[in-house]
Amino acid sequence: MKKWSLFCFVALAGVVMVFAGAKRDTDTTLRFSWWGGDSRHQATLEVIELYQQKNPEVKIVAEYGGWDGYREKLVTQIAGGTAPDIMQIDQPWLFELSSMGEVFLTLDANVPIDTSKFDRNFLNSYCLFQNQVKGLPTGLNGETFLVNTELLKKAGVDPNTEWNWENLFTEGKKVSALGPKNYLLAIDPALTRFLFQKYMSQIAGGMIDENKNVLFTERQAADALTLFKRLLDEKILIPYSESSLYYQKPEENPEWINGNLALMHSWVSNQDRSGGGVPILIVKSLPLMPNAKDSGILVRPSQILSINKNSKNTAAAAKFVDFFFNDPEAAEILNIQRGIPPTSTARELLASKKLIAPMVEEGTNVALARMGKPQSVWEMNSEIVDIMEDCIGKMAFGQSSPAQAAKEMRDRIAAKLASL
Q1: Of the N and C termini of the chain, which has fewer Cβ atoms inside 10 Å?
Q2: Could you give the C-alpha distances from 285 to 162, 230, 254, 306, in angstroms and in order?
Q3: What is the pTM of this model?
Q4: What is the CATH number of domain 141-299+369-419?
């Protein structure tokens, strides 16, 4: 009897060990990285938890944080072969990161993700590398001004002003007359470069085309930089010595939070973060000149979600990405944390439940009404962007004249393009 009992125990233990081993073999762990603010983090974590409840064999490790250092960390991970299975990337990075090698999985018919509810033209404009879809847009995003209505009223400026390059000066002087801490434009060096690109698109039709041709002349760049020098000299634009302290995070500038600044450049997907403590905000279009060749105003993916081609679990990653974009519960949780949803079904769902915040909807419509053509991959190249910001910064700090900065910018851009 004891021998039989011992035999049963050993046999049962063996069955348990085999079962446990089989369970471990089918368990899957995925790493998912993104950046954003607290509300985006919370919504994304809730979707991950929902997916894990429905798919208990899958564990998703969330790797999230702020914008600072995200790209640098991701580049290091890709180069070292330690990148996450699923990655949120900024759309301008797609070309550069893809050029590092076989980085992102091609989302073709063999990948189990339903892309039928995405706008195909939008995918073709923003999500291709070498004519292959390498990611999916997380939302529809557009550039606008966030307007501090109370400050403008106090200065005698109509909050519903349609902005152009001339009334930035006439109305901006009314704001700066309120006091030494008051400025019209609450933007940092990165956003100043964004506005510079708008101006160049409007006078030259763009800066660099897809064939690496420089589209602007040295004279056009000098005229643009002269205008930006006036914005600084006439106290319309917050000084670089102050705005540089909040590089790529101007919404953290205490003067914006305290209501001393009037206009903030913002992406629709960042409105919750960019609003800061300003009590009453509306959205208006970025400046546009008469007879512009192109508005330069961008409407593009909020971000792109891509799958690591070198992941050991690409099928499992694709299944989660499909859930992320196409599950109704997930769509309702994610809401507008990454801008207006990219699929028609998610937009219809949120609209039916009145879940799209009015200011987000208005901001998207404002940007769409004046949408310019997409920037070329070369104009979005990080090294080209660094050249633009460096030359604008030299002018802003008085280290070079507008003409000198324009010549340096064009020469350096042409030389860099030749090496890319």
Answers
A1: N
A2: 7, 21, 24, 31
A3: 0.80
A4: 3.40.190.10
